[in-house]
Structures are given as structure tokens and as C-alpha cells.
Specification:
- There is one protein chain.
- The chain is globular.
- The chain has one domain.
- Strands 1, 2, 3, 4, 5 and 6 form a 6-stranded mixed sheet that branches.
- It is built from 3 helices and 6 strands; from the N terminus they run ββαβαβαββ.
- The longest helix has 12 residues.
- A hairpin with a 5-residue loop joins β5 and β6.
- By secondary structure, it is α/β, with parallel strands linked by helices.
- The two termini are 18 Å apart.
- About 6% of the residues have low confidence.
């Protein structure tokens, strides 16, 4: 799959739950390591492309199990989320009705590399 350029949110940029990063973070895992962790925990092999974005968030507000405030959002493009119930009886399968620009994300703790949540 194609990979977009690594990106760090700055200024007033937001992406989903993530906001801008203040200063120059140190002692965090790399963009490549975040992608590898996301692939190991929440693989989306059907994705047509992937972006890795570094941002900040308040884990307490989001109910994320983390002590840090820096996270990677690994965004898998061209992926159709499956219904939790798995139900599509009598109707089209979800993959037949998804748009090409659908995406799901995997959040990785930027300090520990821990999987936080996947989509």
C-alpha cells in the first residue's frame, strides 16, 4: 500500500481527537515504529494507503490508558469499518457500499508504543 508523508500537527491543526504538538518532542517512538505497532495490533491489509500523524490529546478526557499526551494516529485509507454485530443479512455487504475515501484509524502511544484504540 502507498504511504503518505509523516506529519506532525502544529498550530491550530486538528485531526479527530488529536491536536497540535507543542515544541519538539523527544524520547518518543518513530513514525515507522508507530506504523509497525499499528500493523501488529490493528492490521488493515486491505487499505489502499496509510498516513502516520503525530498529535497531542488528553488521555483522561478520552478514557485512554496512557500517562502521556503524545499519540500517533495511523490512518488506513480505503478501509470499510465492519459493523460490530457483523450483521448484513439481507442487504449488501459493507465492503460493497463503502466509498474509496473511507478511512479508519489506529491510535498508538508515542512514548510507550502501546496500542490505545483501533477502528
Amino acid at each position: 500500500m502507498a504511504r503518505g508523508p509523516d506529519r506532525t500537527l502544529i498550530g491550530t491543526e486538528r485531526m479527530g481527537a488529536l491536536g497540535p504538538v507543542e515544541g519538539s518532542p523527544s524520547d518518543i517512538i518513530t513514525f515507522d515504529e508507530a506504523l509497525a505497532r499499528a500493523w501488529a495490533e490493528d492490521r488493515h491489509g486491505e487499505a489502499t494507503s496509510v498516513d502516520v500523524i503525530l498529535g497531542s490529546a488528553d488521555p483522561v478526557d478520552l478514557h485512554w490508558d496512557s500517562q502521556g499526551t503524545l499519540f500517533y494516529d495511523v490512518v488506513w485509507h480505503g478501509v470499510c469499518p465492519q459493523p460490530i454485530s457483523g450483521g448484513h443479512v439481507g442487504g449488501p455487504r459493507p465492503t460493497e457500499t463503502c466509498a474509496d475515501d473511507q478511512a479508519v484509524g489506529t491510535i498508538i502511544d508515542a512514548v510507550t508504543g502501546a496500542f490505545i484504540v483501533g477502528g
